[in-house]
Design a protein that fits this description.
about 270 residues, Rossmann fold, eight-stranded mixed β-sheet, 8 strands, globular
Length: about 270
Amino acid sequence: MSGKIIGVISIKGGVGKTTVVSNIAAAMAKQGRKVLAIDANFSAPNLGLHVGIVNKDKTVHEVIAGKIDASEAVYKSEAGFDIMPARLLPIKIDPLRLKRKISPLKNSYDFILIDSSPNLNEEMAATMAASDELIVVSSPDFPTLSCTMRAVKAAREKKVPIAGLVLNRVRNKKYELTLEEIESAAEVPIIGLMPEEEKVLESVSETKPVVLHAPGKDISVEYGKLAAALAGQKYKDKRLWSSVKSFLFNDSFTKVDINRTMMKENKK
């Protein structure tokens, strides 16, 4: 086994990047894949908080500092995937050692997801250097789009492939940017469209990804579709309404569905 490392980045706090990481990881695990999520937001970590794993003595900080082997900082979560948390009270480390320290773990996992720092600094550079490809998380507003364009530019300068954008907290309001406007400005396809959903906040409070907390919700199905596409697989929406809609509308696809299909085909 030689897994793929996917870095998840944004250059703006509050867009839900860590929520995206935990839910993609949970959706992949639910689909039978072996997944590890790593908290590489070294100065302000919170991935562990999303799955109830906190205050561990062995973390990614100790791994990068050379105090322990990477496998010693891996914990099983109740969400079905493994996690390498970071210290809530971090110690001084060299973030750029991340790639060398975690690369051996690719032999043990189908996918390794890295939750990056939201700042364009050495921490984000470490995620980019360690990743085989990147996902950029954004939201449909001008300030976030500006930051997204900076993130895309930084990734391209590092020559790291970008799988696509995940557009989070979408309300479908007239004041939001359209998918076409966002794709045109960023020059990256949107591969995930996550609606604003109260169940997400509820799931975070219960330290359980929404794909497990509310599996029938549209957002959970969207994460399932994204997780499958990243693995080059097809996702089957088993909900009754989805089957009826597919029959009535001749299995019509949205733009995001088409982007995911193209990404899936490219992975074969």
